[in-house]
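Posting for a labmate who doesn't have an account.
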Amino acid sequence: MNKQEIILREKLNDYYSDIFEDELINEIIKVGHFDKIKSGELLVDIGDDMTHIPLILDGVVKIIRKEKKGEELVLYFLERGDTCAISFVNCINKKKSIFKGIVDKDIEAVFLPVDNIDEWLEKYQSWRHFIIDSYHFRLIEMVESIDSLAFLKMNERLLKYFTDKVKINHDIDLEITHQEIANDLNTSRVVITRLVKQLHDEGKIHSTRNSIKVLELFE
């Protein structure tokens, strides 16, 4: 066993030993490609061929949907222990990606080829449950995104966005610009600046240049 395989086994055992059978972990190590990707880099783009899916070992990936007019909207985040089961379905059906994935926080991931992940559905019960649960969670998150657009005021959407970022990063201190927030929420920087000041004045956040401390979470 080479050094990379030893490191990958340690990382997989750290989180997945209670989820996957030893035989499945052995197969993941055998066929998976381990990689580290920096924050801000593009993981997958709309229209890309889907040949692999990532199993996130550390970090955060932001999943984005582009509208027909070219505007983008963040749908959900993937973190340690997640995979994008919707991308998995695209892989199985040999379709191109309908989402964009951008690394929001430096990630470590093992990329699994589609031929194997399809085969594992029949071979391993733990893998089948993992993919079904992942698909279920991603659908719930997309419904929440739709509900947020349909029913929440922009200041509520903003506080919910901060709350989601806190939960995904496990940190109330967020390093983020007003323009980045505006891009994620598909609105203007001017609107975000005004609402950030409003939330700051209300004591729900503490805002400084390119930094937000979240003092109250959205319920």
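Reply:
Got it, the structure tokens are right above this. The longest strand covers residues 52-66.
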